[in-house]
Amino acid sequence: MDLTKYPMDRQVCTLQLESWGYNLQDVIFYWTRGNDSVKGLDTLRLAQYSVESYYTSVSEAVYETGLYPKLVLHFALRRNVLFFILETYTPSTLLVVLSWVSFWISQSSVPARTCIGVTTVLTMTTLMMGARTSLPNANCFIKAIDVYLGICFTFIFGALLEYACAHFCTMQHHTVGDIHRVRQIEKSVCVCVCQMKSNAICHKLGKQQVQTNSDGYIPNNAECVCTVGV
To answer: Which of 19, 160, 168, 185 has its CA 20 to 30 A from that of 130?
Structure first.
């Protein structure tokens, strides 16, 4: 069985009827009415499959003791995908949408966004393990449902990773901004102190002038000097 497209696969099976003790010289098998010799497949209902088509054929089995007659019934089975839509595809899709809900939550709400991200990742992992245990053993390693669940897990894990990167970049930006803000406050305090000293010393002299650097701020080691305008 080729389960590469599982659960959207189509399997062709055969039912063989042959003689074990009588060869072609003793008995001959044949379908009396061809495909009409098989009844009931049109109304057959299976749990996970539906019969698409069928046909009959006559063959011969070759063994060391001779040729033996054989009747073969070929029938194609299509797997019903509705069960897998309700069991696997719908829950995994809703988990991806739930992981995207964290984008509408404030970035400062670290517990809320982290809880949603971790919960969706763990739930998706459990869903993948449960789906794999119910899958039949096949000669192919990767099936269609494995690809779909892997893509869903990538989206969910990417949402969690996106918040981690965004939070880290925001913290770095706030740290640099705080450093510049502290330096601005220190320069403002220095200017205020120098102006207060200048006002106290040069109160009766009239015009005031304070020495500043090239940026327009008074350096920490600068002395406040008052000059009288001429």
So the answer is: 160
Q: Which helix (H) or strand (E) holds 149?
A: helix 144-201
Residues 6 or more apart from 2 whose CB is under 8 A from it? 9, 11, 138, 139, 140
Q: Angle at CA 208, nearest 5°, toward 204 and 214?
A: 160
Whether the model pTM is above 0.85: no
Domain range 83-175, CATH class: mainly alpha
**What are the φ and ψ backbone dihedral angles of 61, each rounded to 5 degrees?**
-95, 125
| Phi–psi pair at 18, nearest 5 degrees | -145, 160
pLDDT in tens, 66-84: 899 999 999 999 988 888 8
**Got the DSSP string for 59-120?**
EEEEETTEEEEEEEEEEEEEE--HHHIIIIIHHHHHHHHHHHGGGGS-TT-HHHHHHHHHHH
Name the residue ranges covered by the structural domains of the chain.
10-80, 83-175
- For the chain, residues with pLDDT lower than 70 are 135-140, 174-230
Give the strands of the sheet with 66-79, arranged side by side.
10-18, 66-79, 49-63
Entry field: residues in the chain: 230
Phi then psi for residue 105, to 5 deg, are: -90, 145
